[in-house]
Write a structure and sequence with these properties.
CATH topology of the largest domain: D-Maltodextrin-Binding Protein, domain 2
Largest sheet: 5 strands, mixed
Order of helices and strands: HEHHEHEHEEEHEHEHHEEHHHHH
Structural class: alpha/beta
Strand order of the largest sheet: 2-1-3-10-4
């Protein structure tokens, strides 16, 4: 064999190898800023996705409709996104299905500046709430916080700023009166001393920060890949609950530079609260999201949510919808 032919053969083999191991992209909203994505990090580190039959890489999503569009644009067509963005996209005719629940409660702190004249939830009336994006988790949070305060859904002005970091900056610069931020960001910024906390995660409305969605192309043409993603993610959730201390060691690297003790406290708190879902659909979580969407005008009326759901790709013991 000539040197040229040998070089071509080697190049071809290298190209084939690269193609064979190319990871499938999945989108996870606020991947390292919100604990919802932790099971993906665990499952990648422990090889659960590969064991289930798929190799994935995670694309970070900024929230709201932007995350939904980015999920649809990934090479796999899968994402973990805020419920409002998924429901709105399907209602607008996007060929998607909700295929699982990622987490069960809003893991946010509701914060104001220490100098703020907002002392109670009632004082939020007429104030400005900075959100990452329309239809995002922070957008829904603002509605449900107003409801919790006994105020009208539109009692606060919602100002979208494009990201969680932007929402915090808006608060600190005086462009907003209040916002909500997830636990890792709150801890990283030493939120207990930097801000005044109106609500902690355990007191926030219980709506899911993340739900799993899949495009029609993924569902119809690559069902085995979808099953593998859901199965691998489930194993990540189970590992957090069953091997919490070992999971914390992995997540300490994932959430760095957040100090290890704060990561440990966060994970233990969320394990106790049963924050992460193995994937089964709990309808009360979706109907609460839907109600908030109606209140804020994202949708005009209640929808047939069950038509938006396909549980058949979950592990068999998780396919029954909880009502």
């Amino acid at each position: 064999m000539s040197k040229i032919a040998a070089s071509i053969l080697v190049a071809s083999l290298c190209l084939s190898a690269t193609t064979a191991v190319k990871a499938e992209e999945v989108l996870v909203t606020q991947y390292k800023n919100d604990p919802t994505g932790a099971p993906f990090a665990i499952a990648i580190e422990k090889g659960f996705f590969k064991k289930a039959g798929i190799d994935i890489s995670v694309v970070n999503g900024t929230g709201g409709g932007a995350s939904m569009r980015a999920a649809m644009a990934t090479n796999l067509g899968y994402g973990e996104v805020a419920p409002a963005s998924a429901i709105a996209a399907i209602n607008q005719g996007q060929d998607l299905k909700i295929v699982g629940i990622g987490s069960r409660l809003l893991d946010h702190y509701l914060i104001v500046l220490p100098s703020s004249n907002i002392k109670t939830l009632k004082d939020l009336d007429g104030k400005t709430f900075s959100i990452s994006n329309p239809k995002s988790l922070t957008d829904l949070a603002a509605v449900l916080v107003a409801e919790k305060a006994g105020l009208k859904p539109d009692a606060m002005k919602h100002v979208p700023v494009g990201s969680l970091g932007g929402a915090i900056t808006a608060l600190e610069k005086g462009a907003a009166d209040v916002t909500s931020i997830p636990i890792p960001v709150y801890l990283a910024k030493d939120g207990a001393t930097r801000y005044r906390t109106l609500l902690t995660p355990k007191d926030m409305p219980h709506l899911p920060p993340g739900i799993e969605v899949a495009t029609a192309d993924l569902i119809k043409n690559h069902p085995d890949k979808l099953r593998a993603v859901l199965a691998g993610r489930r194993e990540g959730v189970k590992y957090i609950y069953e091997h919490t201390d070992d999971a914390i060691k992995i997540l300490e690297k994932f959430y760095a530079p957040l100090p290890p003790d704060k990561v440990a406290n966060m994970v233990h708190e969320l394990v106790e609260a049963k924050f992460w879902s193995e994937g089964n659909i709990e309808m009360p979580l979706l109907t609460l999201s839907e109600r908030a969407m109606v209140d804020v005008g994202m949708i005009k009326e209640k929808l047939d949510l069950e038509k938006m759901i396909d549980t058949s790709f979950l592990p068999s013991d998780l396919q029954k919808i909880t009502k």
